[in-house]
Amino acid sequence: MYTLPQDLKTQLRKFRLSTSRESEPRALLLQISKSLTFESEGTYTDLSELAEDLPSNAPRFICVSYPMMKQGRQSVPYVLVSYMPVTCTGEQRMVYAGARELVRAEAGTGGKVIDVEDADE
Question: Biological process GO terms, please (predicted)?
Answer without folding.
Answer: actin filament debranching; negative regulation of Arp2/3 complex-mediated actin nucleation
